[in-house]
Design a protein that fits this description.
This protein is an all-alpha fold. The chain has helices at residues 2-25, 29-36, 41-53, 57-71, 77-95, 103-130, 139-152, 184-197, 199-209, 218-234, 239-245, 252-273, 281-296, 307-310. It comes from Phaedon cochleariae (Mustard beetle).
Amino acid sequence: MNFSIWMLLSYYIRPIVKWFLRRTTGLCELQRVCYGEISGGPRIKAVEYSLLMSRSMQIQQLITHLNNISDNQRFTGANEREILRGAVSTVLLVKKINPKVHFQFVTSFGKCIEQIWGYRQLIAQVEELRTTSFDSENAAHEKKLYELWERLMPQEKLDGRITKQWQDIGFQGEDPKTDFRGMGLLGLDNLLFFATEYRAPAQHVLSHSHHPVYGYCFAIVGINLTSLAWVLMKDGSAKSYVYNSSRSLPSIRIFHQFYSYLFYEFDRFWLECKPKDIMEFSSIKSRFENNIRVSLLDTNAKFRIGITVDNV
């Protein structure tokens, strides 16, 4: 009830406050945000909120247009520059902002647009990979699977395609393809990225998964963490991380980096919890997710795996 009253008051009071501040400062809300907020997450989130709350028909049409572009993954390359130019021009016109006087606003606001709709486009890219089933008849898919083995087990050759050796890196049976059903090709791509880009930390985590008491299935846990990374991305919780970490249009690489951080940190958290057996996985994962969500509430959130990783 209190929340509803607050929303109602905000709906009517907010325009009055905005009008008053515009008259006293000579700046619209978007300008005040771009000039007053810290760059990165704080500024981008504030711009995003301001745009979504706008009652301007032109602004709402712009949002719909940008949503359509990002959902269809057309926000890229030379097209990106044209889209940004058009979006900024629309806001300059609607808000009656002189770009020659407020040239810094043009740059800052354009960067916010790039990140906001780049994030939305990233969700579409990740979803496309998630819904692409691993196909053992696809040579590219099979190549990635063999590369995963080579990165994690460089000193040991596979006896064949179907073998119990896959269990050494945490798959459930003799053929890994059945374990990718939930997250599709995204699960494999994440594991391969972690094992390739962060080879030493991945080896470190793999060795922990073989612990005689606290061991777990490396690949299966990795695929579960792909699911967690996807949920955090889709519900918007990961915005702080992406907005603070991406210097240009967010790409699938930044999602893989986010996943790698989650895997590395989950391994540490798992060992700290000292589980009695693997049956505690669900409860420990839930606690870990809560911790991550709390960290992501910080608009300045920017995760790094650690110095050992950064130097790899």
